[in-house]
From TrEMBL:
Coiled-coil positions: none
Organism per entry: Sphingomonas aurantiaca
Protein name, entry field: ABC transporter
Keyword match Membrane: no
Lineage: Bacteria, Pseudomonadati, Pseudomonadota, Alphaproteobacteria, Sphingomonadales
Keywords: Signal
């Protein structure tokens, strides 16, 4: 008899318990300005291939939140802004789409590349957020490339800065998307030369 009374007494408290932060009304993602044509066949037996790895990120980007460089030595996060998946994966997918469409290379996943000695693009996504001091979206990618048939590694830093009107979720999404596409295009052109 005591157990049902205890459960009934606890029922009003069930609505007060929260096991995590309230999610934002929408989640952010990236859209590619360059994409492979639907229905296009690609074959690594007849075309060179490349594997694009998910880049390494600093701890400030190892989260779904959007970082804001508030001062040279402090980082905050944009209120109500959250990525749909980790920024490194979003960026790797964007670069993959852009490289495939701009270079004609067959872009393979890490698992697919086991039996294919194609090129390899890796690197570190150093910045992927907003800079409050300059009011810009900033994407910085330190790329490392091993070309097909080579053993040497080429390195190159890419950065894009896009002005934003405000430090908020809509401005962050649009600005970072534009900056990421600019970097992805520059990376594809570098790979394709």
């Amino acid at each position: 008899m005591k157990t049902p009374l205890i459960l009934i007494a606890m029922l009003p408290l069930a609505g007060c318990i929260s096991f995590g932060a309230k999610p934002p009304p929408t989640l952010l993602t990236l859209t590619s300005a360059s994409a492979v044509t639907v229905g296009q066949n690609q074959d690594s037996a007849t075309t060179k291939s490349i594997t694009i790895q998910v880049p390494v990120v600093p701890q400030s980007l190892a989260t779904a939140r959007v970082p804001v460089q508030a001062t040279p030595t402090s980082i905050a996060y944009v209120t109500d802004a959250q990525w749909a998946e980790p920024p490194a994966r979003l960026f790797a997918r964007l670069v993959s789409d852009t490289v495939a469409s701009r270079t004609g290379l067959v872009v393979l996943s890490t698992a697919q590349s086991i039996g294919d000695p194609g090129g390899l693009l890796g690197g570190e996504l150093r910045t992927f957020g907003l800079d409050a001091t300059t009011r810009e979206a900033v994407v910085t990618f330190d790329a490392s490339l091993t070309r097909v048939g080579k053993t040497s590694v080429e390195k190159h830093r890419f950065e894009a800065r896009v002005p934003v009107s405000a430090i908020d979720a809509p401005s962050a999404a649009a600005g970072i998307n534009q900056a990421a596409n600019q970097v992805a295009t520059e990376v594809a052109d570098w790979i394709g030369r």
